[in-house]
Design goal:
The chain has 255 residues and is mainly alpha-helical. The chain has a domain of 173 residues. The protein has seven helices and six strands, in the order ββααβαααβββαα.
């Protein structure tokens, strides 16, 4: 996977974000540290054996590599999603079957390293809460790659290994991801009532500055016993219980 994301707007501009491939860059170091861990005396649950100090030290070095890859991936995704949410007024993402894609043993590691699900999660809360923009999730069966961005003709089949889209109705020959990005940009323009969905276009609503629509609570709510439940009943219920007990005592008194 050479490309992490392909961005298209209503003006026809296409931008390509390269895949950093953090996991692939750290595989050599991860193999070396894992080999050292396998040659140390580790824990055994069946016999109750405790790990040696050298195993714990080697395992800490291996975990350090994993943490570094995770931190690099998180940093890259946050920079990408923040830039997209701040620049565009309407963002369209595809509802990909990431769980099904992870079942492919040839692509599972690279798809997991890309973090498609994390990109959508970050875009969801950044567009709604921070920038007050709009996010649209295209249906999973929306033919973004099979549809011609010029004429609108839809192909019956388009295998995954075919990376160039060739239209049968017109002489359009274009990259598969670029064609899908243009179709998603057209979907955003159709969903917007004014403008093309780009925040800088005339008629589109500009995003709010960060934190403008958020409020911070100065004090925590009080949790005194008088304002809530006490003993599993409200105050008026306890008063009624006392009245019933006094009535019962008055009836039994003369006897």
């Amino acid at each position: 996977m050479k490309t992490l994301a392909v961005l298209a707007d209503g003006t026809g501009e296409i931008r390509t974000i390269d895949n950093p491939r953090h996991m692939d860059a750290a595989l050599k170091q991860l193999r070396r540290t894992s080999r050292v861990v396998s040659r140390r005396q580790g824990p055994d649950r069946r016999t109750g054996r405790k790990p040696s100090k050298r195993w714990e030290k080697a395992n800490a070095q291996r975990n350090k590599v994993h943490h570094r890859v995770a931190d690099l991936r998180t940093d890259a995704l946050h920079k990408l999603t923040t830039a997209v949410a701040a620049e565009y007024g309407t963002v369209v993402v595809e509802d990909l079957n990431v769980a099904g894609m992870l079942r492919n043993r040839r692509l599972a590691r690279r798809i997991a390293d890309a973090g498609f699900g994390e990109i959508r999660r970050q875009l969801t809360y950044k567009t709604r809460r921070r920038h007050a923009t709009r996010i649209i999730a295209a249906d999973r069966w929306f033919p973004s790659s099979k549809t011609c961005s010029g004429r609108g003709a839809v192909k019956a089949k388009l295998p995954l290994h075919v990376r160039t889209y060739t239209c049968d109705a017109c002489p359009l020959v274009i990259d598969r991801d670029t064609n899908a990005a243009r179709n998603l940009a057209a979907l955003a323009a159709a969903a917007c009532t004014t403008g093309t969905g780009v925040a800088g276009d005339q008629g589109a609503q500009a995003p709010k500055p960060r934190g403008a629509d958020q409020k911070t609570r100065a004090t925590r709510p009080s949790r005194k016993a008088g304002t809530g439940r006490a003993g599993g009943a409200f105050p008026y219920q306890r008063a009624e219980a006392r009245d019933r007990q006094q009535d019962a005592t008055a009836q039994l008194g003369p006897w």
